[in-house]
Amino acid sequence: MKNILLYIGITLGVMTNVNAQSDAKTEKKIDEIINHLTLKEKVAMCHAQSKFSSPGIPRLGIPELWMSDGPHGVRGEINWDDWGYANWTNDSITAFPALTCLAATFNPELSHEYGAAIGEEARFRKKDVLLGPGVNIYRTPLNGRNFEYMGEDPYLASVMVVPYIKGVQENGVAACVKHYALNNQEEWRGHINVNLSDRALYEIYLPAFKAAVEKGHVWSIMGAYNQVRGEHCCHSNLLLNKILKGEWNFDGTVITDWGGTHDTKQAAFNGLDIEMGTWTNGLTSSAKFAYDNYFLADPFLKMIQDGGIDESVVDDKVRRILRLMYRTNMNLNRSLGRMNNVEHTQAARKVAADGIVLLKNKNEFFPINPDTNIKIAVIGENATRSMTVGGGSSELKAKYEISPLEGIKNRFKNATILHSMGYASGPSAYGREIPSKLNADSLVKAAIDVASKADVVLFIGGLNKNHFQDCEGGDRRHFELPFGQNELIAELLNVNSNLGVVLVSGNAVEMPWLNQVNGLIQSWYNGSEAGNALADVISGDVNASGKLPFSYPVKLKDNAAHYFGELSYPGDSINQYYKEDILVGYRWHDTKKIKPLFAFGYGLSYTDFKISDLTADKQIYSKGDKIKVSCLLANTGEVKGSEVVQVYIGKLKSKVERALKELKGFKKVSLDSGKEEQVEIEISVDDLAFYDEAISDWNLEKGTYIIYIGNSSDNIIQKQKINIK
């Protein structure tokens, strides 16, 4: 009876607003629980009990904590003690677009809709922690997990991650922002020691995590596999104690990546709260009932019992875990969730279509009129290949997936659709490549024959989620398109010059054929509604409005990480040095005057826009002020469309090296044909500061700054000088 009363006392007074931060009443309840826990029970809460859960305390009615992979969809159910799928029949979900697509929308409102939908699905599946979103910075186009992240710009990632987190957590499910921090490659990810300046750390690689904590009020953070300055990120004193829990006052729970813990003492003292996956090597092998052997299990318990660690250390971890539980599985007011409903399907399709980027459109190749009676040859393995499976921990068990070919057939009812595979890559497998058994020459010959009979050729290729492509556990081996696609495109052009390319990928690729094709679309891993969304854009039902969230270099050496050689990327297998410092992505291209193939923020439309009349509300600003930038945006074309007005700011004659300009504001605006709108974007003067290593703090330089306004980082329409006093 006493235990039941304790349970009632600690759960009935939960917060009615699941997005609220912890209040005094809840903290008092948490203290009461801690007083009733034995030392062994406290330690047990700090490590896994299965592949995706950590234990509760049954005698007090404290529930288990259940987690799931799923930055763009809740992963299928995994077995308790191995990595096999449990083969449930009711765990098929809506697959949402990968986060590169979400970033390409430049649309924070859609980010919230996305987060709310995926949070509902996680809640319906009875998950307490959704392991995502990822906000690692796109540093090299070879990184196998770039497709899971939000691009190269810290400001864009910061703006887009906050509404996603809020949407998820409105459902009483914790977002778990990952991988904190500097997990910017898969090669040697488990041990590579990243060396970089404090400026690069604070200005480039941390802002999205900081926004997640301070503006998104995220409830959990996942540490990264790699090391930084000699400490593994999952128990890094610098990252977890000094910055996350110190400077940012994070009151949530730090969870390891699976197998990311390496030392009991560091795990105890350096800010880790829950250890997951250690005896699985994070991925591949398992020892039966090994959970008590985790670093934060029996070894942790023994160190406390022997007096090497004070019990207050475990109390802090348990307090954070209980706080997480009050926000999730001990919150009686959270919803029941929903899954595979019409609204989620619509959200997935909307995000996918909004994020597709039109890169080239010679002679208005796109859109293709869906009412005309023409022959369309759809060629390429990615026209039919499933992109929800494979890729590592982000793979999904989708209830359905509309392929590009299926979407095109659905929309182009009057056209004759011809299809040929063209090339083949083999099936997806984690950690290894499996070559295709199909004859490459026969596939090419068949594709050429089909293309020669068509009025229009759509080549749908790119990358996929195989090992050494866009996949966890390994980086790409080269920059060019794999599986002979470049040669195939050249052969197709020889028999039919009316050809457009659709690239499905999460990374930039080399494009030696670019000048010869009429149209180019960058699509992404777009989930359940991928084919329908692509057909929406190809047909013109939806006007293209996506913008690139990362720069496309002409060649690999044009990328800053690769410019400085192997010690910069991928390192020497032990250490790595970020020699480009703060000049990542467009900052590098702009400052070093290296022309990209396609610039950050670039994306065409089926209509035309004009940006004019740039003004700032004042000429002189002081610390704490807001800069109100305005311009006139007009749709001068023939159809409705959306444009992203982008505001960059640069400092003239800075005392430290700076990028020529940095994104500081943007707004996506929809306009009917012939309409115009005054667009206002507000920027905080304090956001113009740089991280000053001389004082280990942010420093706002006085002097002259330039406001740049345009629709991509390399297409600046107008400039204006302002002064900071």
UniProtKB/TrEMBL annotation:
Signal peptide per UniProt: none
Question: In the UniProt record, does the keyword Heme occur?
Answer: no
Q: What are the entry keywords?
A: Carbohydrate metabolism, Glycosidase, Hydrolase
Q: Where is the Fibronectin type III-like domain?
A: 643-713
For this protein, the record's InterPro entries field holds: Cellulose_deg_GH3, Fn3-like, GH, Glyco_hydro_3_AS, Glyco_hydro_3_C, Glyco_hydro_3_C_sf, Glyco_hydro_3_N, Glyco_hydro_3_N_sf
GO MF annotations for this entry?
beta-glucosidase activity
- Organism's domain of life? Bacteria
GO terms classed as biological process: carbohydrate metabolic process
- What PROSITE patterns does the record tag this protein with? GLYCOSYL_HYDROL_F3 (PS00775)
**Family designation:** Belongs to the glycosyl hydrolase 3 family.
Q: What is this protein called?
A: Glycosyl hydrolase
What organism does the record attribute this protein to? Labilibaculum manganireducens
